[in-house]
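Lay summary. Proteins are chains of building blocks that fold into shapes, and those shapes determine what they do. In this project we predict the shape from the chain. Here is one chain we studied, written as its sequence of building blocks.
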Amino acid sequence: MQNGAVQNRIAALSPSDAPAYRALMLEAYALEPDAFTSTPEERAALPLSWWEKRLGASDDAAGFGAFDGESLVGSIVLERGERTKTRHKGHIVGMYVKASHRGRGLGAKLFEAAMAAARGWKLRVVTLTVSEGNAAAIALYERCGFRAFGIEPQAIAVGPSYIGKVHMVCELAHRN
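And here is the predicted shape, written in a compact code that computers can read:
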């Protein structure tokens, strides 16, 4: 690589990527406790099959990763409603980019991949939640077409503090 440039790419994740995805997300839960509703301990106790399902072992999830060479440095997962009356909706989970790789546009590229999958599934809306006060994430999500529609107060407890979750939605246009 010239001048120390980093070779980044976005790719679909598959169940075979579950060990790397699990490691990345356990890091995320540990380093960014204010951003996630799960703790590293809760998620570490889950079997590998749970992580595989999240990455698309079913038809209701699609995961995407940001890679620096062969190393997974970011992720996003789109989950689709499983019930008949919610199949038109998707929900973003597990959005994370390592601090060392932020500011390179990887978050926006991960969102592009997830939203392309949402359009491919012909979803009408995609939702997500973000911790109140996370201005950088909220700004990214707004640039990606999301808007806030409510705040759940005291949604998560982090030590003695409580953090609200901003609920956001992106309405997708599609042909009937």
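What the prediction tells us: The chain has one domain: 2-171.
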